[in-house]
Specification:
The complex is a heterodimer of chains A (451) and B (194). Chain A is mainly beta. Chain A contains four helices and 21 strands. Chain A has two domains: 7-40 and 128-450, Porin (Beta Barrel); 52-127, membrane protein fhac (Ubiquitin-like (UB roll)). Chain A has helices at 5-14, 21-39, 70-77, 87-98, and strands spanning 55-63, 83-85, 103-112, 118-127, 131-137, 140-142, 162-170, 174-181, 195-205, 210-219, 226-227, 229-237, 242-260, 263-281, 292-316, 319-343, 348-365, 372-388, 399-416, 423-437, 441-450. The longest helix of chain A has 19 residues, at 21-39. The model of chain A is unreliable at 1-50 (pLDDT under 50). Chain B has a six-stranded antiparallel beta sheet, with helices on both faces. Chain B has a three-stranded antiparallel beta sheet with strand order 1-2-7, with no helix packed on it. In chain B, a hairpin with a 4-residue loop joins strand 3 (60-68) and strand 4 (73-84). The chains are: A mainly beta (451), B alpha+beta (194).
Chain lengths: 451, 194
């Protein structure tokens, strides 16, 4: 499980993944070629220069902003006053703003500027409420208690299944948030812990359009009493669709005592994970997109330290052997995901997703002679279909959709030196859900079956 | 009580049926020398969301995709309309299925509506009958990525280089842009060409 934990929800809820022009071209064109091949249509090169010239944007004005800071909206659009933009750049900015969790929709329009050829760009926004929730509950039933169910279809961009909280904009470019987040990413050698969190995000850091979020989390499940744990996230948008997100995440638990035959043994645990996510995102929604591409690659490094009782055994009727030791693990790995969403009609959308992960962990305690290494591999392919119950006109206020999903995944673990415990599992699963997004939050309720 | 409930249900059904009965505007199709054209309904331009986009000073793209149901053949056309805030003219362009392009600067909304009523040529066929599914998507912003796309398609095997093969690239590039459709329409029609 990932070490993104509680704070991640606040970062991911606003996290803009992004895309640069050159890599986009390849992907976009691949899509075009696939589309054209599917259509089996003749093609011709045409002279078709767009009728839209470069537009000089003298000023950017945000309208209908009651709670959201206009400066944050402008910063997140990555547009700047006093520059010329092609419509394609404005369109990318519109798509980027549509992915912000605190906006339901944004309209772009131009007005005349102070002199001929100059324009005022009007961004009319539709805000979400300051309180938000994200509830992604799709229990998966199976006929095998040992089945390693894959929850990748809980595919909202934040990776979270549960979040409750509130966000207030402070000053021109800041926002504070507090709330609770449930378990998120499912990684092999690190995990999330449900936490309460309070944090602050500074947008447009040093005028660079980057943002930084600091969270203080308090885990509420795991190894005992959670301690205040810091998380720092810095996001650097490289282009309207491409973002690099650096993350340091720490999870701390207080020491507990475990008593065996009158002797107290200290039990401790702590985890630190550093990761960098490179994301290319042209999707149209922050949580359950219907259109666009999302590519993410995340290399990570982490380590855990703790102390635990390794084993307890009766040597004789009067003597018990307790193996207690401090231990240390460190791991490195990478995960990657590619998802493409297609809108078949204005209500129907399909998606296909590939996910992969590779990670290697080394473990030692005072009883191990050499480090124990474990290598985990994971791969999955998922597909889905969703149908909106609302017309495009109604969807400026959110969405209501039914979704059907299917996924096949394989996960295996190898031990070095070889150990008794190995794992190699194939899981196929199907599910359905109802998705609802409104100004209050996002809901995904359903059920699945795995075998 | 039962009568009231029945009346309420009947009223609901009436409302539901009457809203269903409100058909979307239909284009007028015509055939000339084996070429199928469509005159798009002017009411599309009057729809509130479309009207709002047309007055935004940004391009509104009307993407028409025609699918020949028996042949799985797809062709299309694209119309782009932008109101120039400073010159106070409508800058319009129509790219038809064979790449024929028409550009105009129209000085009034009436002129725009008149130009809009010119049939858009969608496909050429020598069949006696064609069954078409025609989709019209109204998209904000222009389809400006086409140059990159066309170059790449051209390089990737020459499919984009043959002249006269139909302007499907120009017509369809619009479907690849990430702008959210403002609205869309679908019509099914069967046409007798002879």
């Amino acid at each position: 499980m990932g070490a993104v934990a509680a704070g991640a929800v606040f970062v991911a809820l606003r996290s803009p993944y992004g895309a640069g022009r050159r890599p986009i071209i390849v992907i976009r064109n691949l899509t075009i070629v696939l589309l054209l091949a599917a259509l089996a249509a003749p093609l011709a090169a045409q002279d078709a220069a767009a009728p839209s010239p470069l537009l000089f944007i003298e000023r950017i004005e945000v309208r209908n902003a009651n709670r959201v800071s206009p400066d944050v909206v402008i910063a997140e659009s990555r547009l700047r006053e006093g520059r010329e933009y092609a419509e394609a750049e404005l369109r990318d900015a519109a798509t980027r703003l549509a992915r912000l969790p605190f906006l339901l929709s944004v309209d772009f329009a131009l007005e005349r500027g102070s002199e001929r050829g100059r324009h005022v760009l009007i961004l009319t926004i539709n805000e979400t409420k300051p309180f938000f929730f994200l509830l992604d509950v799709v229990p998966v039933y199976d006929n095998d208690p040992l089945l390693d169910v894959d929850y990748s279809n809980d595919r909202n961009a934040s990776g979270e299944n549960l979040a409750l909280g509130a966000r207030w904009f402070v000053g021109r470019r800041g926002a504070v948030h507090l709330g609770f987040s449930g378990v998120g990413h499912d990684r092999e050698f690190a995990r999330d812990y449900a936490s309460f969190a309070v944090g602050y995000t500074q947008y447009d850091l040093f005028g660079s359009r980057a943002f930084a979020t600091i969270n203080l989390k308090r885990p509420v499940e795991g190894f005992g009493e959670g301690l205040i744990s810091p998380q720092l996230v810095v996001g650097v948008p490289v282009s309207a669709n491409q973002t690099i997100t650096l993350k340091y995440d720490e999870t701390r638990f207080g020491e507990e005592k475990r008593t065996v035959l009158g002797v107290d043994y200290p039990i401790r645990f702590g985890q630190k994970v550093v990761s960098a996510t490179m994301a290319y995102n042209t999707t149209n929604e922050p949580f359950f997109p219907t259109r666009g591409t999302l590519l993410q690659v995340t290399p990570m490094y982490g380590w855990t330290d703790g102390a635990r009782i390794l084993s307890t055994g009766f040597v004789s009727p009067t003597e018990t052997l307790v193996q207690h030791s401090a231990y240390h693990t460190h791991f490195f790995g990478a995960e990657a995901a590619a998802t493409r969403y297609w809108e078949l009609t204005d209500r129907d959308s399909v998606w296909g997703n590939l996910r992969g992960e590779w990670a290697r962990e080394s473990y030692n305690d005072q009883f191990t002679v050499t480090e124990l290494d474990r290598t985990a591999r994971y791969g999955s392919i998922g597909i889905g279909y969703s149908h909106s119950l609302w017309s495009p006109e109604e969807r400026v206020n959110g969405d209501s959709r039914f979704e059907f999903t299917a996924r096949y995944s394989n996960r295996d673990i190898e031990n070095d030196p070889p150990a008794f415990f190995t794992r190699d599992t194939d899981v196929t699963q199907v599910g359905f859900a109802w998705l609802r997004r409104s100004s209050w939050g996002t809901l995904r309720l359903g059920a699945g079956y795995a075998w | 009580m039962v009568i009231r409930a029945a009346a309420a249900i009947a009223l609901l059904l009436l409302v539901a049926f009457s809203s269903d009965a409100q058909q979307p505007p239909r284009p007028v199709f015509n055939v000339q020398a084996g070429v199928v054209g469509a005159t798009l309904p002017a009411s599309v331009l009057q729809q509130q969301s479309v009207k709002k986009q047309l007055s935004s000073g940004l391009t509104t793209t009307f993407l028409v995709i025609a699918r020949q149901r028996e042949l799985s053949r797809v062709t299309g056309a694209r119309i782009e309309v932008r109101y120039d805030l400073w010159d106070e003219v409508w800058i319009v362009r129509r790219v038809e299925f064979d790449g024929k392009t028409d550009r105009q600067r129209l000085t009034s909304a009436e002129a725009l509506e008149k130009w809009w009523r010119t049939p858009v040529r969608l496909l050429a066929t020598d069949a006696a009958r064609v069954a078409l599914q025609v989709d019209l998507s109204v998209l904000p912003f222009s389809a400006a990525e086409e140059e990159d796309a066309r170059q790449w398609i051209t390089k990737s095997g020459g499919v984009g280089t043959a002249a006269g093969g139909g302007g499907i690239v120009d017509a369809l590039i619009g479907t690849t842009i990430s702008a959210k459709p403002i609205t869309s329409y679908r019509w099914n029609v069967e046409l007798a060409l002879r």
